[in-house]
């Protein structure tokens, strides 16, 4: 017993509701495959921290021992040691950056690929509910916005934390009293940075949503179809104003994102920069009140360490702010990675080495959502090599029936079988090799004619491509072009007419050579002359294959082995062309264009 299919529905708007928190452990798990490299980075970070804190101690010896005692040999060694620490720190820093950037980019690649793969598995309903620019924005803008965080934050966090700990230990070793003075305001700084981080996280979430809106506007209005619609409707200026308004909102959010918390963070910088003066003052007061005197070398070394503490401390606070900001981006990416997928491959697919092509619809029911089903109890058998035509008024469920065979949707009741095997028990590759689809909505990539045809079979030779084009009645037209099969088809094939694009799609399907063919309104948008040329190509394509033809124009289905008339998701009539005309029923009314066919059948 199969579980009931749950159709995808878009998530409800989250207005007025705080976003769900991101599990930090899930972010950390992204780095698990690269734990070896991360461990190496940690070793380099530790070594760099130890080397960097050695320099102030060398400086103390220079000021307290080598110079006062005139020991030039020791002075030279100590000076050389300071130079060596600088060189080692630089080399270790370069190695850290190289390895951490590599790890970060690999994680970015994993995220991009994961989101793309998840979207490839989403049902068609998802894409009908989602703007194209929104999808692009998640992959490009959101994941791209995480680049700095993913590639450098982990290393920066470990490096700066190690540097802070090592520096504080060294400061305590020099003078614990001055160390206490230096760290008094640290809790205040941490509180400030946390508040700034929360503020930037909120702004970043709003900014990414606005970027998605802007991306969707560009995708829709600057496509070939969008430009044609805008110009023919006289809406080009209106579209420009709309884009300007959306861009203005983005500008406001970008300014807020760039300036949020800057004053508070600058206060931290000012206080940290003023700390040396405070330390000199504290040391002077302690000496004046009879406290233990500090040597000049110790005081200078301590101030040097304190100034060395300034950079990693501020960097740590800034990293915390950046991480909070990036949580908004991770949240949006994880939303797509967590999308439910209802059309999945079986755990143990049934092998189907040789496809004969028998297709059966067994008590098939399908519903896009609550309410009356689009298909209700449909029983049809299409023998291998036979032709089935499906006709009926608009909304009767014809295209939905055809979409169930290649599993563009899954049935909600009953089953669809191929050679007796439920199509849900076949792996995707087997089903794609077995079932070809030619629809009214022809899609061509912005690539050459040859590349578009090879999309069906990447290993196809030039001769095979030409043979498929000849069979589809399009070779002569392509060969007459200046660049022949190397001609770029333009966005969505716009350089070709509707009939030419349809014949290219037919040639692509011929090249794939599927034993089962679904023709979904393949000629409904063509003029009579072009339809004849395309129909000739379709006849060539259909020869010897199991063919299910979905059509509005009944002239294309007269010779079908069986014609099924759908109305309201149910079979109203079935038979051959002559049989159905002889009954003078629903099919005969359709052929006459009888207006009575617009009324739904009584169940």
Overall description:
GO terms for molecular function: ATP binding. This is ABC transporter ATP-binding protein/permease. Keywords: ATP-binding, Membrane, Nucleotide-binding, Transmembrane, Transmembrane helix. With 603 residues, the chain is α/β, with parallel strands linked by helices. It is built from 21 helices and ten strands. It has helices at 24-29, 35-66, 72-120, 124-129, 132-145, 147-174, 176-183, 186-221, 224-232, 236-259, 262-288, 296-337, 398-404, 428-434, 449-454, 462-471, 475-480, 498-512, 528-542, 577-583, 586-591; strands at residues 359-366, 375-382, 387-391, 413-418, 421-422, 435-439, 516-520, 546-550, 562-567, 570-575. Strands 6-7-8-3-9-10 form a six-stranded mixed beta sheet, sandwiched between helices. A four-stranded antiparallel beta sheet has the order 2-1-4-5, covered by helices on one side. Strand 7, helix 19 and strand 8 form a beta-alpha-beta unit. It starts with 23 loop residues before the first helix and ends in a 12-residue tail after the last helix.
